[in-house]
Design a protein that fits this description.
Helix content is 30%, strand content 25%. By secondary structure, it is of the alpha/beta class. A hairpin with a 5-residue loop joins strand 9 and strand 10. Helix 5 packs across helix 6. Its EC number is 6.3.5.5.
Length: 327
């Protein structure tokens, strides 16, 4: 076949994932390049990629046309978004890419609307009788009792834990409810927090779920994590994904396992999460499975392929380039 070129949008700091994509092409005996796209010129992953393309911001009316142009020029076979904010836009414009031979790894519009808007996510959980922290209406907040605290205030369109605050009094609640843009108020729950990477094949079947216990986070992204083979969490995540209108590829599902053993879900992100390298190192090779499916090969995805009790301990590293390269 012709070269299998991959474009990663919002490449940012996803150095590990781009390195793995390059390695995967070699292992599958495919010629091709991994290309990074970002709105800035200083994304670390751009200097690991085979090529680095500067594109407009997602908010720009030229964003989709710019990506289509890149895909056409570079003969892109697969486009992978690494951020939440352009997923809905890509789902709406998927056909523009399809006609030029580019497969966009994205769920459909309805699924992205459920996942991106956390109010919609809450309603999806409630409608499907999936345990989730209660979200308070404005009327309920007027009648809130001191015994109901602490509560969680967060933006319904937020990402990477930006704007998330735990409040312990009515005074704090009133302040942060106005301070946080697009705020919603939820019940605050405790327990072990898990981010679960799930692979859903192109026929819509959940093939593998890897729960990752979040031991430590930094800037909203896991810095220390541990794979945990928990059958109850795996079954619960599978049920969540089966209830979505259309899931495909890497789905990242966040939940808490509480002291009484109950599992409560808080978010669904239809993309590669920041902690996905742990899942890959454990043996669940999502990028490989995606490429296998798109090239007509046998997809090797299965539930028993990954190692339990494998830890990831992240640290800072540097990429040194000339100043002129990022201006």
């Amino acid at each position: 076949m012709s070269s299998f070129n991959i474009l990663c949008t919002a490449a940012g700091r996803r150095v590990s994932l781009l390195r793995h994509l390059k390695k995967t092409l070699t292992e599958l005996n495919l010629t091709g390049h991994v290309i990074a796209a970002d709105a800035g010129s200083s994304a670390p992953a751009g200097f690991i990629a085979d090529d680095y393309i500067n594109v407009p911001k997602v908010s720009s009316p030229d964003y989709i046309d710019a990506l289509v142009s890149v895909c056409k020029e570079k003969s892109i076979k697969l486009l992978v978004s690494l951020i939440d904010t352009d997923l809905t836009l890509l789902s709406e414009n998927r056909e523009k890419f399809k006609v030029i031979g580019t497969e966009v790894l994205v769920c459909d519009y309805d699924t992205n609307q459920i996942c991106f808007d956390k109010k919609n996510t809450y309603e999806f959980f409630v409608k499907n009788k999936i345990d989730t922290p209660h979200t308070y209406s404005n009327q309920e907040l007027e009648d809130i009792a001191e015994s109901d605290f602490p509560l969680l205030v967060k933006p319904w369109d937020g990402s990477c834990s930006v704007g998330v605050h735990v409040v312990s009094s009515r005074k704090e609640l009133n302040f942060f409810k106005d301070y946080v843009n697009n705020a919603m108020v939820q019940e605050y729950i405790q327990g072990d927090e898990y981010t679960c990477d799930a692979y859903v094949d192109f026929k819509g079947k959940v093939r593998c779920v890897v729960p990752r216990l979040r031991l430590e986070t930094r800037g909203g992204e896991v810095s220390k994590g541990l794979t945990v083979n928990d059958p109850e969490i795996i079954a619960a995540v599978t049920r969540v994904l089966n209830a979505l209108p259309h899931a495909v590829g890497c789905m990242t599902v966040q939940c808490f396992k509480q002291p009484d053993g109950s599992i409560s879900f808080i978010e669904i992100n239809p993309r590669f999460g920041g902690g996905h390298p742990l899942t890959i190192h454990a043996g669940a090779d999502f990028p490989k499975w995606i490429i296998q499916e798109l090239t007509g090969r046998k997809c090797e995805a299965h539930q028993e392929c990954w190692k339990d009790d494998l830890a990831m301990l992240r640290y800072d590293d540097e990429i040194i380039v000339k100043g002129e390269d990022i201006r």
